[in-house]
Design brief:
The chain has 385 residues and is α+β, with helices and mostly antiparallel strands. The chain folds into two domains: 121 residues, Phosphorylase Kinase, domain 1, CATH 3.30.200; 232 residues, Transferase(Phosphotransferase), domain 1, CATH 1.10.510.10. Helices cover 38% and strands 13% of the residues. It has twelve helices and eleven strands. The strands form four sheets. It has a five-stranded antiparallel β-sheet with strand order 1-2-3-5-4, sandwiched between helices. Helix 2 crosses helix 3 and helix 6 packs antiparallel against helix 7. The longest helix has 19 residues. The two termini are 42 Å apart. Bound molecules: adenosine-5'-triphosphate. Adenosine-5'-triphosphate (ATP) binds next to strand 1, strand 2, strand 3 and strand 5. Keywords: ATP-binding, Nucleotide-binding. This is Protein kinase domain-containing protein. InterPro entries: Kinase-like_dom_sf (IPR011009), Prot_kinase_dom (IPR000719), Protein_kinase_ATP_BS (IPR017441).
Length: 385
């Protein structure tokens, strides 16, 4: 019944509105003049599209990236309105990239450290919605409210703030969970409840997915959560799966005889370890490559943490973190630690760490209060979130 009468009711409302405004043009007229694939046309087309549906409304354009336009939506059914992100192709010829991203994200449904797809529409570039406003596919994503890792790094460097070790440990655990998620994809169903990513010693890795675009703008902070690993530091999640690729599992045995597939795709771990290294060393731009140093008989690219004056430069850094980051950046990926071991070891540390585990001179900066104050200032209260 509702759908049957919907059309005529809508038409009546529209003509009333025009009368009230003296026939002046609004978004209704604007959208026809603009290109839905250009940032300039996004507002008009999305406003119009979602007005007809009544579930979301357009809030603002967030950005136009390599191939996509990203905009903020508000869920009109919730109070206060829940936010969501819509991602569309920037040009018609980029529609296939967006479809690849839809396919990738389907594999990670329910994976806590990978951005979740709330819904999607998979259409060819020219096919529009019934109201004629919005051609092509789109993805609606969970909104991650606490900004990118890139913005976080910039704030830390600007304030010359020493990052508490407990914050580094929590982020490291999030990053390991990301790598686990890319190696044991959940392949859940739409709307699947999020779960922390787990390895499976029984089944062994089921995929070797390379994200292929793991830069700092593609790691974002979500909210604080009840799990112990996210109770002081918000969850970090990976976004933007437009370039992700499944590759062959790595069958060659590692130096010690263990199958190297247990490390996941080496490009993921290395890219994430580099982000932690930049945070520790306040490095604003890309780290130099091919600067490997020897550590315990293997070459690592984490040279900054092996510099002769490292203890003067980073006297506060937990030695175990230094070794893990060095291990994740070894030149021969077969010498890297396994995800299984990393997950167990890091989870154990994060679940039990307290300020008393640090030397007396560091304890004040590692209390729960100090960690909370740091997180509040550099992540939760940050401008632009
Ligand atoms: N789920 C999200 N929650 C909040 N902001 C988001 C979300 N997804 C994307 N953004 C914002 O939009 C920006 C661009 O998103 P994304 O990287 O997915 O698009 P892109 O077109 O592939 O961009 P690029 O090529 O620059 O990486 C992000 O850096 C972030 O600021």
């Amino acid at each position: 019944m509702r759908a049957f009468f919907g059309l005529s009711l809508k038409k009546k409302k529209k003509s009333k509105r025009k009368k009230r405004r003296g026939g002046s043009s609004d978004d209704d007229a604007e959208w026809k003049k603009t290109d839905p694939y250009l940032p300039s046309g996004v507002k008009a087309h999305l406003t119009r599209h979602f007005r007809g549906r009544g579930d979301y409304k357009f809030n603002r354009l967030v950005g136009a990236g390599g191939y996509g336009i990203v905009a903020l939506l508000e869920d009109t059914a919730t109070n206060p309105p829940k936010r969501a992100i819509i991602k569309r192709a920037l040009r018609k010829d980029m529609v296939d990239d967006l479809r690849d991203e839809i396919e990738s994200l389907k594999r990670f449904r329910g994976s806590a450290h990978i951005v979740q797809m709330v819904s999607y529409r998979d259409r060819s570039a020219n096919k529009t919605s019934s109201d004629g406003t919005l051609p092509g596919p789109y993805i609606i994503l969970d909104y991650l409210e606490n900004g990118t890792f890139k913005d976080f790094l910039e704030r830390v460097i600007q304030a010359k703030a020493q990052v508490p070790n407990r914050v580094l440990w929590s982020i490291l655990l999030c990053f390991i969970r990301v790598c686990v998620g890319l190696t044991w994809p959940t392949r859940g169903v739409q709307g699947q409840q999020e779960q922390l990513e787990q390895t499976s010693a029984v089944r062994g890795p089921t995929a070797a997915i390379a994200h292929n675009d793991l830069h700092m703008g593609n790691v974002m902070f979500g909210s604080l959560r009840p799990e112990v690993e996210h109770s002081l530091v918000p969850i970090a999640k990976v976004i933007d799966f437009g370039a992700a690729q499944s590759s062959e599992l790595y069958p060659e045995p590692a130096a010690g005889g263990a199958p190297s597939i247990w490390q996941g795709h080496p490009s993921n771990t290395e890219a994430l370890a580099r982000m932690l290294l930049r945070l520790i060393t306040w490095t604003p731009g890309a780290l130099p490559r091919n600067t490997a140093v020897m550590s315990n008989g293997v070459e690592t690219e984490a040279a900054l943490l092996w510099a002769p004056d490292k203890y003067q430069r980073y006297p506060w850094l937990d030695e175990r973190l230094r070794l893990i980051i060095g291990g994740l950046m070894t030149r021969d990926y077969r010498n890297r630690p396994t995800l299984e071991g990393l997950l167990q070891g890091t989870l154990q540390v994060v679940s039990n760490l307290s300020s008393r585990d640090f030397p007396t001179r560091l304890q004040q900066g590692e209390t729960s209060q100090a960690v909370m104050a740091f997180v509040q200032r550099f992540i939760l209260d940050a401008e632009g979130n």
